[in-house]
Amino acid sequence: MKNILLLVHDDEGQEARLQAALDLTRALGGHLRCVDVTPLIVVAGDMYVGIGQGAVLVDERESEARNKERLTARLAKEDVPWDWIDVTGEFASCLLKEASLADVVVLNRQLDQFPLPDMRMVTSQVLMHARVPVLAVPQTLERFNIGRAVLAWDGRQSCIATMRASAPLLALADEVEVLTIHDGSIEAAPADSARYLSRHGVDATIRSINDRLHPIEVIIEEECARFRADYLVMGAYGRGRLMETFGGVTKRLLTRSKYPLLLGH
Predict the structure, then answer these.
(1) Which domain of life is it from (predicted)?
(2) Phi first, then psi: what are they for 24, rounded to 5°?
C-alpha cells in the first residue's frame, strides 16, 4: 500500500482530501500522485452552446491553474514524495485511467459546487472497475489518524478483499476491532478475519452485536463512537453490476458518517 492517488479539484472538500492523503502517504511511507481534474460541464441551451461550453471550460482551467499553483507550493514544503498530472474530462473516467496502478484512491463524499457528479457514484465506479480501495473522507476532516480502526465484518468477498488490501494500514494501528452484527448475513466467522490479520502483525479484538431491530449503519456508527475509532474499514457491494450503485448500508454511511471510510470491492 504505497501508491496513493488523490483527486485534486478546487472545491470545499479539497482540504479534507489533501490532508487525508498526506497523512496516509506519510504513515505508509508511500508516494502521492495528484490527479487534477478539470471537468467538462454541459451548458444547456439552444443557441451558442459551443461558445458557452468553451467559456466555462476556460474558466475552469483558469481556476484549476490557480489551484495548482497554490497546492504545488504547499506540497513542496511537505515531507512526502509526490507528482502531479493535469487531465480534462469526467471525474470517474479520469480517475479510472490512473487508478489501475494505485493502491488506494482518496476521495470525499460530495462536490458542493456541482449537483453532478454524485461522488458516491464516482466512488462506486472506481471500486467496481479499478478494484482499488477508496478512502472516502468527510468534508469536515482535519487529520486522518491511523491509531484506532474498526473493520465491519460480514464475511462477504468484498469484505475479505478490503481486509486484505488494508492489512498494511491496519498493521500500523494501535488497536483494531473486528465488528460483527448478527443479522443473518454473516458468511464467514469473525475469528477467521482475526486469524488472518494476526499473521500481518495485527492483534485484533472481536466485537459481536446481536441486533435485528436497528439499522446496521446506526449500529456501526454507535460502535465506532464507543470504540473511539479513527476510521472504518468495510466492503462495499451493490445491488447489481449494471446499476453500479451501492447497497443501502454503504450508501447511507457515505452520506451521513462522520468517519473516514476505507471501502473495497
Answers:
(1) Bacteria
(2) -65, -45
